[in-house]
Amino acid sequence: MNVNNLIAALERKYPIEKEYLQAVREVLTTVEEVYNQHPEFEANKIAERIVEPDRIFTFKVVWTNDRGEVQVNTGYRIQFNNAIGPYKGGLRFHPSVNPSILKFLGFEQIFKNALTTLPMGGAKGGSDFNPKGKSDREIMRFCQAFMTELWRHIGPETDVPAGDIGVGAREVGYLYGMYRKLALENTGVLTGKGMTFGGSLIRPEATGFGAVYFLCRMLSEMGDDIKGKTVAISGFGNVAWGAAKKATELGAKVVTISGPDGYIYDEAGLNDEKIAYMLDLRASCNDVVAPYAEKFPGSVFVAGRKPWEVKVDIEMPCATQNELNGDDAKMLVDNKVQVVAEVSNMGCTPEAIETFIAARIPYGPGKAVNAGGVATSGLEMSQNSMKLSWSAEEVDQKLHGIMNSIHRACIEYGTEPDGYINYMKGANIAGFMKVAKSMVEQGVI
Ligand code: GLU
């Protein structure tokens, strides 16, 4: 494989899909050396095949708002690769959603899902629908309209969507209700479901919890632990909430959260009451964190800025792609950050990652650090097909085991000659090898 030629061809074909090209470049560059040691990969054109989605569904979503006005959005489902299991990945509802963003997310999902050790392929979907300021009924009508198109393309053994930004338990509930009505079946066709209709315990917390379990492994590899460490978290959604909850429970001090409006600096650190308040903030559907500072005196709201300027031991970006850039990374290195555990998908830009690696600061990439979410979705699928449900302890124990095994895979494939663990390289190679081998074994299809 010649990565530069392959990327150049993709740039000509998809010139405006910058997030997709960024994700492809990162993975192919890191796997190039190992890839070229496997002539069967080249003979089967694995790289050329793996970068193209199997298929993309694009559809119109028409719904009516509370004022009786007809609204038109675009819906998508990208079925990227199902070599190792049914297509699996979340749905994102956000005005920024476009084919490039969903293709990058779907591509990343292939390797993340492979890392979980569970049989799941990669997919992603969503809509440019903006949930901000929408009433509950509007959300419901949108989800129902979205599912009237999506339902014919998904199924418990075919493609299993879940949540992502803008899609939580409420949206999954409305989507599931419409699927059930149209397909006349109750199956594990979606994950992240409510507990009364097949959801798994721990799924709401899983991404954040898993990220902290992975972070603890990174720290123990350095001969350190999380107790007493200061942590900066960005975002204030489900993932940030789970990470804040587990990090706090294990004795860390989380001092920031953030939203599109700016960030909160809370010197005293988050506690149970403040973490619970994050859910109220999210439920308000206004997408702002400023009210936190009014509710909790002693904390400050910093408008229009990101939390990276606060000096801490550990950074956990939990918001969205490319939220931490090269300049931010240089500032973090100057501020002597100890570990960066990226929880958002592709949260750090290539320049930021390069800066961390050059400074030999352990950097855990999203596809390893946040894999606990989709892993627990995989556990939800297992419970649904067995028609039983596991206790919270059982699920949490399995999640722990999965995060440990992802960490081990990163060490196996990512340890550099000087002993530095390049988690990005390790995660990319471990995930890629599994999918590539299974594609070779299954023939040219
Ligand atoms: N959206 C989450 C992710 O990025 C979860 C996907 C899922 O559970 O299918 O991995």
What does this protein look like?
The protein is of the alpha/beta class. The chain folds into 3 domains: 1-50 and 425-445; 53-185, Leucine Dehydrogenase, chain A, domain 1 (Rossmann fold, 3-Layer(aba) Sandwich); 204-369, NAD(P)-binding Rossmann-like Domain (Rossmann fold, 3-Layer(aba) Sandwich), CATH 3.40.50. The protein has helices at 3-13, 18-35, 39-43, 46-50, 99-115, 136-150, 169-183, 203-221, 238-249, 272-283, 291-295, 326-334, 350-358, 366-369, 371-386, 392-414, 423-441; strands spanning 55-64, 70-81, 87-93, 122-127, 159-162, 230-233, 253-259, 262-266, 299-303, 314-316, 339-341, 363-364. It has a 7-stranded mixed beta sheet with strand order 9-8-7-6-10-11-12. Helix 2 crosses helix 17 and helix 16 (392-414) packs across helix 17. The longest helix is centred in the last third of the chain and has 23 residues, at 392-414. The chain is globular and about 55 Å long. The structure holds glutamic acid. Glutamic acid binds at residues 88-90, 162, 164, 191, 345, 370, 373-374, 377.
